[in-house]
Design goal:
The protein is α/β, with parallel strands linked by helices. The protein is built from 14 helices and 10 strands. Helix 11 runs parallel beside helix 12.
Amino acid sequence: MITIENIFKEKYSGQPYIIAEAGVNHNGSVELALELVEAAAKAGADCVKFQAFSASELVTKDAAKANYQIDKTNPQQSQFQMLQQLELDMADFLTLTDHCKKCDIDFMVTPFSIGWARELLNCGLKCFKVSSGHITSIDFLCELASLGLPVILSTGMSSIAEVAAAVNAITEANGQLALLHCVSLYPTPLDKVNLRAMTTLHKQFGLPVGFSDHTVETFTGALATAAGAVIIEKHLTLDNNLPGPDHAASLNPAAFTDYISQIRRAGHIMGDGIKQPANEEIEVRNVARLSLAAACDIVPGTVITERMLTAKRPGTGIPPADKVKVLGQKALRLIEKGQIIDKDCIDCQLYQLSSDN
């Protein structure tokens, strides 16, 4: 059984799974789509994702476009006409599947209908991605989840109640689910990003969470990593000046490479969360920490009292925290004033000193 955990294996090493969202930035050309696969692999992404839809199934012929789509495409076109020009067929997706294997990058698709989802099973997908626009399409979510693959669900434009309904539908049918915090603005202004919502999703549902990033910045992925994202999705284009609805809100290959580099550095900085000294700290610890030392000359046979003790560097002797175990013990030899007291200086057979000293 394919699970979210074994898809996103990097989750356990502090590195997010990075999806390069090629989306419709191929402009309907499988040749451009193949170049996007290569650009995503070269940038260091774990996965490249496309969208599978038929305009005639998805949208009415007179449906309006969003303002950002009007700004970046022919304003005289309807949404239907725009999407018609951005379709790929099943043969294209099979070609892209093979190319992803050659480029050693995962292939992912967002299906916009259950028919497309069933066809795409022939591509050997590891999971399905669901767009924010489908989050209230409960029947679609149930059917998709019942196909047996894990689901990554974007949550743009959604209230927590709408997310909860979608989560219930998918988990009842399948159980394998990850959520992406998303703001469906293209591009997303920084003051609208609200990365804390990602934490809210994790606390509310106890699921793996990530960030679908629609900003045009290269540092936001690193911030999402620090905030706990195990999946990060970002739009990739070959050229921001190409015609089409999403190119302007995407990163070109150079910027995308920088974006991934910053994410990877953030993952290394975040570490594994275990609080323990690094191996390289031991030398510094021995220099910087304090040890019990003699505040005066202590002759052999003397019972050690509080006034005879002080603490000084280096930290190679008995730590001050173990002082109570030293008080009342007899000096076995002369301990000169200022000398670090170690275990050989005192009769401590009846006492267990700290094991790291």
